[in-house]
Design goal:
43% of the residues lie in helices and 21% in strands. By secondary structure, it is of the alpha/beta class. It folds into two domains: 2-122, Response regulator (Rossmann fold, 3-Layer(aba) Sandwich); 125-221, Winged helix-like DNA-binding domain superfamily/Winged helix DNA-binding domain (Arc Repressor Mutant, subunit A, Orthogonal Bundle), CATH 1.10.10.10. The strands form three sheets. Strands 2-1-3-4-5 form a five-stranded parallel beta sheet, sandwiched between helices. The chain has a four-stranded antiparallel beta sheet with strand order 6-7-8-9, with helices on one face. It has a two-stranded antiparallel ribbon with strand order 10-11.
Length: 225
């Protein structure tokens, strides 16, 4: 497993580099946002650990740039910014996890294993289909009929969950715990925002709608007459 650590603080970078290598990972380091973008475009990383406060290009800019070209690689934000608004921003931009500094290294390793296992599960899954909507987790592709749907990593994970449990109504709490892998403030609207963006790609351009809201309960994907 190959990990890219984008961190400009020398001691933090050395700490992460040593700990991850001792845990059996191959680790590359970048000290600026621009270098992080370059390395992410040159190598096929399993996970990118990304600080927010970076020189040249900040973490948000790096995240957006990587996600524009790569929806598959897992990205974990590492930052001292613990406000809910910052967490939601990172997740909405396509981050898969968000770890607030200071943190204990065992927690970092546990989250790393969780993200990498989730990627393995997606790769091993069979194609899913609801009406003319088809999802191929192994190739990280989605189609509606002959139209290819470009999805961010988080949108893909959300659609994968809905299609894997097609016909079942999922609550906001279930979606947060299964897609974001973390305990999230119940007042956040991250699910509604993500669902709205997913619908804009999956449903809005087509006459037949597949994602449905069950008011006061949750969301379901299914074909209706």
């Amino acid at each position: 497993m190959r990990i890219l650590v984008v961190e400009d603080e020398i001691k933090s970078a050395q700490y992460l580099n040593q700990g991850l290598k001792e845990s059996g990972y191959i680790v590359d380091n970048a000290a600026t946002g621009r270098d992080g973008i370059y390395l992410a475009s040159q190598y096929d990383y399993d996970l990118i650990m990304l600080d927010v406060n970076l020189p040249e290009v900040d973490g948000w800019g790096v995240l957006e740039e990587i996600r524009y070209n790569n929806t598959k690689t897992k990205i974990m934000m590492l930052t001292a910014r613990g406000r809910l608004a910052d967490k939601v921003k990172g997740l909405d931009l396509g981050a898969d996890d968000y770890l607030v500094k200071p943190f204990e290294f065992p927690e970092l390793l546990a989250r790393t294993r969780t993200l990498l296992r989730r990627g393995d599960r997606l790769a091993a899954s069979d194609k899913l289909k609801v009406a003319e909507l088809e999802l191929d987790p192994g190739r990280h592709r989605a189609y509606r009929g002959d139209t290819k749907i470009n999805l961010t990593s988080k949108e893909f994970a959300l659609l994968h969950l809905l299609m894997r449990r097609a016909g079942e109504v999922l609550s906001r709490t279930q979606i947060i715990s299964l897609v974001w892998d973390m305990n999230f403030d119940c007042d956040t609207n991250v699910v509604e925002v993500s669902m709205r963006r997913l619908r804009a790609k999956i449903d809005d351009p087509f006459e037949k709608k597949l994602i449905h809201t069950i008011r006061g309960v949750g969301y379901v994907i299914e074909e209706r007459d």
